[in-house]
Each structure stands twice: as structure tokens, then as C-alpha cells.
Model the fold of this input.
Amino acid sequence: MAGGKLTPRQKMINLMYLVFIAMLALNMSKEVLSAFGLMNEKFESANTASSTTNKQMLESIDKKAEESKGDFIAAAVTAHKVEKVSKTFYDFVESLKADATNGVKVDEKTGKLPYEAMDKGPHIDETWFKGDNYSAKGTEIVNAMSKYVADMKASTSGQSKLDGIIKEVESKFNTADVKDGEGVTKKYLSYHFEHFPAIASLAKLTAWQNDIKKAEADIYSAALGKAAVSEASYSKFEAIVVLDKNAYFQGENVTGKVVLGKYDPNAQFSGFEGPGKLVNGQAIISTTAGAVGEQNLGGSFNFMENGKPIKLPFKGSYVVVPRPNTANISADKMNVVYRGLPNPMTISFAGIGDNNVSASAPGLSKSGANGKYNLNPSEGNEVTVSVTGKMSDGKSVSDKKVFRIKGIPAPQAAIGGAAGSQKGAKSRLQSSQITAILPDFLYDLKFQVTQFVLKVPGQASIVVNGDRVNAQCVSALARASKGDQITISDVKTKIIGDGAGIQTKTAAPAIFEIQ
Done:
């Protein structure tokens, strides 16, 4: 582009185009930079979770070594060596992140790094590399990687079952030169970090930390063994009281069982203390419900571990309720029911499951789940709801309750959505919609105005069909003076949606004073 018989000016322009294209190629898109940032966040979150998990696994190894001795003592020694090596290298990598974020400030609003602005990594380029070779800092990094690999191998020496994990570590932290896609041999750090965006380098370092945590977890898991993780000790078991139900009627037989958190039919116990007996590794409870109120169950599982007696106590409780003789009937939204509306109700009997309760009344119907009903009364001033419940012993109880029936109250006329008296310019009244609202009503009813009367002082009343002033109203308003009070009255409405078809009352008037 800069050659041939072109003029010097044209050659310069062409050269500038080449530089511009090169700059575009070097600029990574904001979406890619954000993706690296999100990747770093996920690695950071995973590393935090791994730290907690690894700590718990190490504690399990120590616990098992203390209780079971044997091979677990050697496993604990290896695990603690690996923990020390892993922490040293993990912390070193953490210190390298400061090079990736050098000069970058966390956004005070989001608490995150400005990923899209981290498209360059000059600090790493300047401090890790010197010409085609490593700087002192770069040499320190590859030496630390090699030392980590060597220390991991030394910590697991002689344990062939861990060879696969060590080979993975060697592969992930191999500092040998790398050939790029064009066959050019580059030094390890140059291939992975030189001239890379700072956010990409940060994500790579966090990924290293993730690899460290994974190797640490793999070694702990292998040392602990699949069975040892879930079965470290009897003291890890939890005694659980499982009753057939949580509440019982007076005189009813209380049945259930007490089991350990990890049920084992082959478990051998030396004894059981409590209201029941041992059957195939679990205690079968059988007792009689006494006084009304909360009752406690207690006792212990007794067993031997490593020749020592161990007692594992358990505690539980249940509630005894009196036999029901009164139904619990309540309207979900009000103390009365409204004619023409689906009044929601919850109907139940204390101590009886909803599936064993039935209710009836004129206009009553189920509305989905057991115990949920809608009552839609049509005639009269009262409605009676009758309820029957069937108890677990086969006996039935019944009850009833009377509700008052009321009609929907009259709504209030509103101008531009505001009810009552208000002030404003004529133009506001001319452009406002006449509506009707029912403040503080338990149902969200929607009214549509079908007719109203507009009255200007000193002029004849105007009947308007619809919900906006017509041309005749506009003409009358033109002759109104400041301070005149325009009355919107005889407002006729109809309900849209729930309650449609119900005859509504005339809405209360609204006053608009001309300013």
C-alpha cells in the first residue's frame, strides 16, 4: 500500500490506514473483556468454596486418625504436608494478582474491577520480561512453579495411588517452552501472559489457584477414602425422632421411630433407652398420648466403638391436642361476604387433615387446594356454611357458621383518577377521563363510567354518554369563570372483570373548581 508510483502524501495516508487497522486488531472487544471478568469471578467463587471444603476434609482426616489410628495417621501426615505446600504457592499466586491489577481501581458503586478498561497489561510486560528473556520477577515465578511441583511430589512420595494426581499437577504447571499456532517457540510466561489484557492475566492466575485447590482436594479425597468421608465416626451420626404424625388426640396411640441419620440395618447396638425397643438397627416407639400440650421423648442409643462404650442421646417432642368439636371457618379478606363476588375462604377442622374436611353452602365451591373455597352468594341477607370433618379413628364432627351478605358499596366519581374536590384549569377538566373508584375496598374492582352529568353554574345540566366531556361540555366550560365549581354527578358505571354483571350504585359526585 505504501509502495508503487503513489505520491508521498498518498503513501503516508495508506501507511496510516495500516497502523489504524493494526490498532483495531490489538483492541479486544468489551464483550470479551467482560467475559474474562465473569470467568475470574466464577473462579474466585469456586476457590472460596474449595477452601471451605478442603478445610472440612482435612478435619475429617485428623478426626479419623484420632479415632481409628492405623493408615489414617499416615494419611493425615501426607495431607498436612500437601496443605502447607499448597498454601505457600496459592499465596504466592495471590501476590502476583497485584501485577495484573496495577493501576486499576475497583468501581465504588459495583465493588468490581472495571473489566472493559483492563484491555492492556503493561505492568506485567514491564516487570516479568526483559527483552526476549525473563526478568528477575519472571524467573522467580517459574522457579516458584517448579518448586511447587517438586514439593508436591516429595509430599506424596511412595504413594502410588496419588501418582495420577501428581502427573496432572506436573502437566498444569509445566514451565517448558511452548510453540504457538504459527510454530514459533516461546517461553512459558511469554506465551501465557506477555501482551495479554490485564483482565485475561488476572483470570489465568485465579485459574492457577483453582488448579491448586483441586489438586489439594483430590489428594485429601484419596487419603480419606470414599467411605471415610461419609462414615468417619459414630459420633457423626444424628439421632432423629420420626413420628407417624406431629399431633395426636387424647388417648390416641403415639407411633413412630427413632433412627440414626445414616441408617444401617447391620449396625450392632449394645442397648437402647427410651419408650420403645430395638428392631433391625432402629428403635420402634410405642407409647400413649397423655395430657394436652407438648410432650417430650428422650433416651439414647448405646454401642461400643474400639472397645469403648458410647452413648448417643436423642430428644424429640410431639403435641397432644384435644379432640376437635369446633371448626375453624374464616373469610380470608373480610368478616362479611359480598353478593356477586367470589369471596375466598379457608375452611378447616383443628387436628383433621384438609382432605378429610367437607363444606357446603349456597354458592360455595372449591378453588384449588384442599381447604380453599370461594363463596358467591346471590340472594338473601345471610348465608350458612356447614362443615363436616372425619377423624383418624373414623368418627365425624360437624359445625356451621352464619355470614352476613352485603352488596357492593357505591363508588366515588373521579376526575383524572382523583376523587372528591379538586382545582385546576379548564383545559385539565376537558382532557381528563371521568372514572369511578372504590377506596379502601377489599376487592380490586374495575369500574367503567358509562354516563355522567356535567353542571356549570348558571347553565343547564349536560348529560354525557361515555367517560369524557363532549363538545357541548366544552362550550359550556368556555363560559365558566374563575372560581366556578363544576359538578360531575349522576355517574353511571359498570364493573369490568370480576363482578361483571353486578348492578352498581350511582357514584358519589366530584367537584372541579376553575382556576
About this structure: Confidence is low (pLDDT under 50) at residues 19-26, 226-234. The longest strand covers residues 308-321. The CA atoms of residues 38 and 115 lie 9 Å apart. The chain is about 35% helix and 30% strand.
